[in-house]
Design goal:
By secondary structure, the protein is mainly β. The protein has strands spanning 7-9, 16-17, 27-35, 46-51, 55-56, 66-76, 88-92, 98-105, 116-117, 121-128, 137-140, 147-149, 153-160, 165-167, 176-183.
Length: 196
């Protein structure tokens, strides 16, 4: 059964797939799907009748992000009707999660990219779901992407790859690079000259 009950997808034209029914007189299927509004009310559902195969892929988007319900029934060649299955629910979530970066100096104050400092700079990344419909985070390895810049530089950077932050619907975050980090630990020099 696809989409499985209580599953997540980022596919706006998901394939509906169900068990094949065999009958000597032949079988056709009727599929219904609808956006859930409190309950699975199929009175205003999209209905696809006379399907010969036990799967169907919509030709256009089923609608905006949200929870959807679907069901299917089989009708044999002489009109015997199986009645609809129970309703299956799935969540459509097409919004990418977000990778955020924070940076602090050695004295624990905030560091802003592009500012000069004479302290070490530590950068850390975090992953969070976003959007009005959130399927939750499935993969978050952003915690290993940061680090500490100690040596002098005018172009230091740390990056977190989008594949390190993925939600349950399969949406991958955009990669995030924190830069430039500018560190100068060298004291200026005062020079003296003397003339008569």
């Amino acid at each position: 059964i696809t989409p499985a009950d209580n599953s997540f997808t980022n596919d706006t034209t998901p394939m509906f797939d169900w068990s094949t029914v065999s009958d000597p007189s032949g079988v056709s299927y009727t599929l219904q799907y609808v956006a859930k509004a409190g309950s699975c009310d199929f009175s205003s559902a999209t209905t696809q009748s006379g399907l010969s195969a036990s799967d169907f892929t919509p030709g256009s988007s089923i609608g905006p992000d949200g929870t959807y319900c679907w069901r299917v029934k089989a009708i044999d060649g002489v009109g015997n009707d199986s009645g609809y299955t129970g309703a299956f629910q799935f969540v459509l979530d097409t919004t990418k999660p977000v990778i955020s970066a924070t940076a602090t100096k050695a004295d624990a104050t905030t560091y802003t990219a592009g500012d000069w400092t004479n302290q070490d700079v530590t950068v850390s990344f975090s992953c969070a779901d976003s959007g009005s419909v959130q399927s939750g985070i499935a993969t978050d390895t952003t915690g290993t992407d940061g680090g500490t810049q100690s040596s002098e530089t005018s172009s230091g950077s740390f990056s977190s790859d989008g594949s390190h932050c993925v939600d349950n619907a399969g949406n991958q975050a955009d990669s995030n690079t924190f830069s430039p980090i500018k560190i100068d630990k060298t004291k200026p020099v005062i020079s003296a000259t003397a003339t008569k």
